Amino acid sequence: MNSEDVKAIEALLSKPQKIVIIPHKNPDGDAIGSSLGLWHFFNNKGYNVKVVVPNDYPKFLKWMPGTESILNFEKENTQSLACLSAASLCFTLDFNDLSRVGQMTSVLEGLSADFVMIDHHRAPSDYAKITYSDVTMSSTCEMVYNFIVALGGLNEITEDIANCLYAGIVTDTGSFKFASTTSATHLTAASLIEKGAENALIQNRIFDTNSPERLQLLGCALKNMVILKEYQTAYTTLSQDELDTYHYKKGDTEGFVNYGLTIENIKFAVIFIENKEEGIIKISFRSEGDFSVNEFARAHFHGGGHTNAAGGKSDSDLPTATSRFTELLKSYKADLNS
What we know:
Blueprint: H1 3-13, E1 18-23, H2 29-44, E2 48-53, E3 71-72, H3 77-86, E4 89-93, H4 105-109, E5 114-119, E6 130-133, H5 140-150, H6 159-172, H7 183-194, H8 199-207, H9 212-223, E7 226-228, E8 233-238, H10 240-245, E9 268-275, E10 280-287, H11 293-300, E11 304-305, E12 309-314, H12 318-329, H13 333-336
Parallel strand pairs: 1-2, 1-4, 2-3, 4-5, 5-6, 8-9
Antiparallel strand pairs: 7-8, 9-10, 10-12, 11-12
């Protein structure tokens, strides 16, 4: 953060505030970890603070300290609306456009509260009074760590804060495997471990705890995988019927898309997941090297994200979405084989 933003934040926090912290819809480890990490920091300093999530999040994240305090806008609508309408200061974490909060969008647009954005995705909107945006960062959790340090709070990072922030960092870096991981990321992780983050236990809770149904669903996804050698691309699909067969629960498909990149000479991996309730196909894109899935998702599938990790959607059925995707690859053959 630059010194002007730090002074502006300090000025806002120098007076009584009712703070609400908001992550994006379908929050992942980085969104929940950064939200709870910041919640603990403000709560410990005596602020009136609450986390409101647009909808539910995966069970494998619900071990995080403070998770029981979170309000779910979808399930606890009355309480959430009261909390939001009373807010004087809103921190939006791990997203940079109000459209990313689903049904909460119109509510946030109507608030009189000041907004502070902390996010590492490209092309931020200008809704926030203070914007801390850095696309070079591994995760929003790394940014929240920097935010706390900038406010002079390094010695106020507790074991609970450390566990939440470390969880988000390992989630968004794929256990420090992704290109977004820098030396600064490792230094931040080391500092969090010194503050009490249980690194081995966190890795186990997030990556190594599976239900039989999730592993069977993974097997189904791998069986459905299509490899397009001429485009160095692999994609897989999961239909609603397949999700139902294996009793899909939120978060069960987390990380499935990355398996495509483990194949030799594959640099572009995609997963298409049917969601009949929303009437869309949810799409996750991953890449290696300089092929920008952010640009690909923005151009063709109403999405975006990072250079090597992005999301999108299609309003068509599953066969049409994959057929269109395959056709689009023809225009990117040179880029994918460079």
